[in-house]
Amino acid sequence: MFVNKLKVSVAAGLLSAALVGVSLSGGSASAATSCNTAKSAAACGGMSALIKAAKKEGVLNVITLPANWANYGAIISDFSKKYGIKIVSENPDGSSQDEINAVEQDKGRSSAPDVLDVGTSYATSNLNLLAPYKVATWSDIPAALKDPQGRWFDDYGGYVSIGCNTKIVTTCPTSFAQLTNPPYKNEVGINGDPTEASAAFSAVFAAALANGGSFDNIQPGIQFFATLNKDGNYVPGGSAATAESGTTPILIWWDYLQDSIKQALPTWTVNIPTDASYAAYYSQAISATAPHPAAARLWEEYLYSTTGQNLWLQGNARPVELPTLVKNGTVNKTWLAELPAAPAGTVTYPTLAQLATAKNTVAANWASAISGS
Amino acid sequence: MASVVADNIVDFELPMVPLDLTKRRRIHWGRGLILWLAAAYFIIPIYAALKFSLQDISGKFSLSPITAIPSQPGLAAAFFLSMRLAFVTLAIVLFLMVPTMIYVHMKMPRFRRFMEVVTILPIVIPPIVLILGVLEAAPLWLKSSPYLLSLVYVVLAMPFVYRSLDSGLGALDVKTLVEAARSLGSGWISTIWRVLVPNLRSALLSATVLTLALVLGEFTMASLDLWETLPVWIVDFDQTNAHISTAVAMLSLLGTWALLTLIVSIDRSNSRRRRRNRAS
Amino acid sequence: MKIPSPLSDGTSTPSGVDDKDRGGRHITGTLVRSLRTSVPVLPFLAYITLGLLVPTLVIINLAFRSDRGALTLSNISTIVHGGEYLTGFENSIKLALATSIIPAVLGTMLAYAIAQSRFEFLKRLVATASGVLANFGGVNLAFMFVATFGANAIVTSWLARLGLNPWSHGFDLYKLWGVAFVYFYFQVPLMVLIITPALNGLRPAWREAAENLGASRWRYWRHVGVPVLMPSVLGSTFLLFGSGLSAYATTEALTGGTIAITPIQIGAYLQGNVISGEEHIGYALGFGMIVLLLISILGYVLLRARSSKWLQ
Fold it and tell me: What element of type H or E holds B268?
């Protein structure tokens, strides 16, 4: 009887594998047109041809795009309405690594991600997964913020900022130096773990810039938080939730993301620290194994059009083409005014090599610095 | 030996002999303290979380986070996914373990020690390491299905299911029952289903309860496998609206507890009825 | 009638084995016969192999591979020479020890207190609560404890009003002992869950008989209670050790990485948003954890064998 049970279970296993295989082969991408592999809209016959090919595909898979992150909710619904393409939004609060994993794990499935919005280093370490494509407004993207072959290109970014609940904190801090003041005891947090969350990592980098460090030297930033912890001002484990619950009424996070706290707490204000301006952009990329390649390309064109860029602006993020939009007068002035006051002067960014070194330093020293304090 | 005495007393509950009244009062006082401290430690944090989730900015209490729950994006899908995973896991683990353990108890008792050690291993391999190994080893078609998680959850549930079934079977004289049933003409499936399973009811229910609790609470592996189960949804949503996600977390905790207590209560009332029927 | 034993030791002699085996031909015969009798456990063995053994071997293999796939010891050497990894293991072990031994004691006491209760419903509630809480953890647990025992939280404020603010007396939720305090929330229920069946095996009739024979409470425990319970308690402690060593989401959410423990380091290399392209160190760390846990299993098996001898 037990041997029979074994035979039955093996047969069941084979049968289900066969069924899965059958369902896999159906539902694949629509008939290929040149817009599936084109490196620009012009190369496949212009925008109208691209739109046509994309509409034929009818679906776009996006991943890790929360609705209230840089206004993606509005962007997704506007794109869907405009082109009649359904957007399937997977794993909204995943990480950049989750996106890369999904591209690799779901390869060949119709649910695989089509487009990515990742931390730049994730794009540069996985170039083989990305398809080259240059949007119509390619020349408006600064050279330092895109891959020469078009495999990734920066989209939006913001500054590390200090958010503060005016109901609990009488005078909100406007610089890193002020964070060490005694009134802020048990109040200061960063969002996440700097060895795992890029927002937290950037907070440490900004602290480094404010304390004599540089893009080559992040150690002063680690030291700053160690001292902050020793003085009792720093609260570990900060997040949007702890900001709302009053555990960390001061939270260091990206300025455009502090928006979600503002929606829950009208008394939440955001300041960009006067002693450190650290900005970073995220990067767009098209998956080389996208199940809906034409729709993916159309999505990028949309994001880099004036509409798309302004919608990002509405989400308090700084779109990469902002200088051009301002110059051409196509920027939405109301939304521009809502941005927290940006520091004067041009922004500089660490190179990928500097980022890599800094990340290794943080990974090696963060825990020991804080617990040793 | 005490065991001989126990042998003849089967199911009776002997009255406690009051040897020393002061000693007895001291015992009750110590026991009460432990119970109250434990209750405080476990209940107060739940209260604190509920307080946060139901209290809005100005300190007013409102049920709006709870009433907003059904309309939250992705929650229904996450909830049903977790439910489906739970029942599939349960089906697989019972279908695998019950016949195996019955057979082992009957024909290969020495194998039990091996099984015991082997079923401890899942607790000992960290979930974060296990899921990474599974994701590397699993074929693509399996990785695209959420039920891969069910397959891994079966491994995680094995220690608990094994122990439940082992003690349940250990209390029965499996050999005699099976031989009696077989000599009366019952086939194997009929023997298992109509003779052994009813006798294993409380062990099976205990295994069910533990498996369901495990699947409905598991986070790390589901989030690394990129599936939005209920625990994963709760954590993801925390960055959007902490009040609602905390409310969902607490409701899920209390709801699972209620569901499992219900399941166990069905067994107790059944067995009490059966015992009463037998005694009359 | 078989006496129900609180031990899961097989006490009956194995049936179906010919103990008159002698000679070579009998040995082959026995081999074939025992292979045949093993067939029904094949599904179980296959499942364990595919579900547990294969992934573990995969991790071990990846731990020794470089990014390009070549066999290398460099990942291991990075870990052995990198102070933060050793600190991670040290902290992990400390945390696991603290959250296995203490909850083992507390859990046994709690389980015993519950088992003595006359309220059937209470026992039922506790049994299911233990099941649910043993699987509860992560972000929600961390948040609950911050909201309860944090620097300005509910219980802290109550105690502060009584002049007993724990934070002014050295308590820190975000340091190792604070984290251990949070771990108790799932470790104690896990202990209660595992030890209750063994406690139920302690028949009140034995206590009664011991008292009739003139034994004091102390002697009862010394000669009957403790020896009967000891194997289960030891085994459960090892289970708790493994569970405490592996817990990841709770500490990560609570401390944001300010305490180095190995699971968090694995997460940083294999799942996070910051470090990319160095997965093999993560796998090597996983390998380290597996080695650690295999050693503790060995200890568990040896202790189990020894303690069952105590009971003969």
Answer: helix B242-279
